[in-house]
């Protein structure tokens, strides 16, 4: 591996052994989870190229509503336009690059806090103090770089690439599996950012690792599951779907909080679905709500997990929702707390001197599929195959 991050040579045989059939494969060695060069490569070929889910459309419902965020160090500004569409811009003043907006709110225009350059909601530069005598400077020709931005059933996606894959093709398999839910009219009831001391991939892998549920979560999410030996459906681009299992809602009883989502009213009371939408989203369905978790690298060994929980609109707007939220968070915090302790321990093991990653279980088929997708993006299929031989 070239530690400059610019060129990646053939992976080591120990990494490539992850690509063997599941009954022969080992987990990859630790550098995949602690090497800064690996993360830089991921920023280039994964986060810099893919569609990234960054939130819900109802977070900025009105014209002029905006939300500023940083996506793997890239400053991005979402803004609801006068025609109702959501636009995404590079949140960098065209003068020296200072972020022109912070946080969220509503604005008629954006003024750079450093030198006062002024922008319309469409990103057009409409004012630049003391620039009339700058030779060749044409204010009307200046506009914030616009980023590709799309939405699917209320979920907002942006790409840091000027030429990302066609969005309809990107979202097609996700839509096939989960489009029936009709999430557009649902509303965000809970959103939290949670910092963790682990590599971003470990959290994504953990969420599709059903091997651990009967052990780690035996008193929480696993207490009602008849089996954790669930069939994994592996799809293109490292996507993984678990079509049905019986975990139930995040209540003490496992029963639903409220009336089920209309599309799920005919489902069993503990009906559950799960999926991975690469690069970094885990998606869970329960009869009465939907959970989306996105994992974002801060550096090679730390991350932020974003938690989005959407419920039917009338539930969120009900005076009883604070109690629903309290109950959900009580159980969610127990389950996630169990997971967090494990993924941070996994991170510590990545540099343990005497630890050699062990063999995979067939119950980790989904985890392996996600791992191999990332390895292929970093090294390429031919290099992985050659190293495994």
How would you sum up this structure, described in words?
This protein is of the alpha+beta class. The chain folds into 2 domains: 242 residues, Alpha-Beta Complex (Naphthalene 1,2-dioxygenase Alpha Subunit, Chain A, domain 1), CATH 3.90.380.10; 114 residues, Rieske Iron-sulfur Protein (3-layer Sandwich), CATH 2.102.10. It is built from 10 helices and 18 strands. Strands 12-18-17-16-15-14-13 form a 7-stranded antiparallel β-sheet. The chain has a 5-stranded antiparallel β-sheet with strand order 5-2-3-4-9, with no helix packed on it. It has a 3-stranded antiparallel β-sheet with strand order 1-11-10, covered by helices on one side. The protein starts with 12 loop residues before the first helix and ends with a helix.
Descriptive tags:
389 residues, alpha+beta, Rieske Iron-sulfur Protein, 7-stranded antiparallel beta sheet, 10 helices, 26% helix, disordered N terminus
